[in-house]
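pasting input
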Amino acid sequence: MSSVDKRRKQNRLVNFVTNPKYLMVLATIGIFAVIYIAGIVLYGDKGFSTLRTFMMLFIDNAYIGISAVGMTMVLITGGIDLSVGAVASLTGMLIAYGTTRLGLNPVVCMLFAILVGIGLGCAMGGMITYLKIPPFVATLTGMFLARGVCSLISRESISIDNDLIDAMASWKIYFMKFVDGEWVKIKPVAYINLNVLMFIIMIIVGTVILQMTRFGRNVYAVGGNEQSARLMGLPVDRTKMMVYAFNGFCSALAGIAYALYVKSGWNLSLQGAELDVISSAVIGGTLLSGGVGYMVGTLFGVLLKSVIPSLITFNGTLSSWWGKIITGALVLLFVGLQQVVMSGSKRGKKKKKKDK
Amino acid sequence: MCVKSKESIFKSKLTWAIIAEILILIVAAIIEPRFFSIEYNTETGMLYGSLIDIVNRSAEITIIAMGMTLVIALGGTDISVGALVAVAGAFALKLLRWDVTQYPTPGDFTVKPFILVLIVPLVICTLMGLFNGVLIGKFKLQPIIATLILMVAGRGIAQIATNGKQFTTGYSPFRFIGQGSFLGLPFPIILCIVICAAMMIFVRKTAFGTFVESVGINPSASRVTGLKSDKIIIIVYTITGFLSGVAGLIYSSRISSCDSNNAGLNYEMDAILAVVLGGTSMTGGKFSLAGTIVGSLIIRTITTLVYYFGIVFRVDHGVQGGHHRRRHHHPVRAGAQDDGHAQGAQDEGR
């Protein structure tokens, strides 16, 4: 009896590992672990192994990660959103202009910027869902529009001069340890700031939405096969609208994070960020054709993309441009892997059917 | 769907683009009549004027958009073109300044033979286009992610080729490509006309254009009828890579240097915009090269007007965004009534 149980348990583990849906995420985590451990072995003496270095991976890429949460959801529905960089840039402009030039309360500015983000997301979602414009075109339009509005607000960089925003940007939770009866900061100082907190909360929120709510299951169903989802009576249109609205919200939040990170707004900032975001999600195992993707994968996709520049910095002699080439190669590796895994699983399914 | 209505839609799309261009020019004429003056400079033997300038400066985008039209007609996109422009410039300047230690200042020298300076970048860009094509045609990757690879890696390659430096050159045969004149017209215009004519002949006088449209409307049906859609996709992306290389040579010759960071920045968006303004639907299917040329001219006219009248830099993107939105509503609404099958094919594909 116990041996049967054991075998069943083993089978479950094997199934979990070989399931193509999880395999991609596991591959991402595995490659991140390999690169990170390689970094510790090579540059551990220079401080690569410290908690500070690890936390910097989060701090420097929090805005990409926040946006990637929304993007993952859009990609799972089989869509794409090219406007995230422009919307985030617009958010930064609104906050900078509102607080510094108009002297408004930063909280009001942020809420307004989030509303603008959600509004733009809804508008693009509406174009995609009801006017049947392909997502690529609809969001490209949104991108041009957001960039245009950015330039209308100001064509120069505005540095943010506001006490509350300064306080938010410099707010930190330090990692402490218990030594001789009192708490002291660990050395070298490692901390989490507001951006990282937002990033982690968004990853958790995204996971909960996707895995534990009816809406999340609808998202997977729409991405898996929109026609079938419609025939099953699922609210396809509403789901797509909400996903794009949520992505608009994430873009605006990413814009706030970026504004806190650089403490300024510029109409040309975050150009090409949308592709960073998309490639993070893709490296994290989200399928562009829709239906498959996990927030955990996206988290590690962001980390994997940020550990490469970090390694190159620690090396010191390599040209920083190798980072771009390696990122390109990683994307190639992962989409190739996806292709192999997906075609393999299809073949497996066919075989099973034949056996029956 | 009868042939007549197809033709009338095709016509109307091109006419719309031309009407838009004329409207913009009329606005320009009302504000500033001198906008249309063209002078002939006897010393340099070249025509000067805003109109000439618009056509001259639109050459790079027009050349890239020729390839992009076919890519979009296949239902794909190529976002690596801007990076390829940088790659071509970087390799050309690397060859021009091969012995950079021997000749520290830019002057009248090059590797021998000079033709290598032109051929090597073009071959590299063509190979990169082939790489895109193989990923998309053979391995069936999504076009945007397949070309994203080279978009990211391309600029890195360009930087490493030049060691992150910006070379300048004074070699006159190379500078002729972007700054010289032929028959009174700037040389990029001549190059652009030759390439556009060659593409139009290649696409319309052979069956290739029809093949592309067929694959774009319904890939599986085309495969069933015996078209080798893989090969067509590969050829189209390779052509686009080659044309990006040509545009890169023109660009780097214009500025007499290479700039791996900023050369061809946002060209992919401008080229896609030119194609869409020209009336080719992003869903794939029927395309119009003539429309694309007009689309590219519209973009450049707006940009030139913005510079000419001293309106703030980059407001043009706002104008373009609005324009884009307005234009795109039109074909979709029309599509619901008349042009259903391109749209329908896309829906079936999903």
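fyi Chain A touches chain B through 45 residues (CB under 8 Å).
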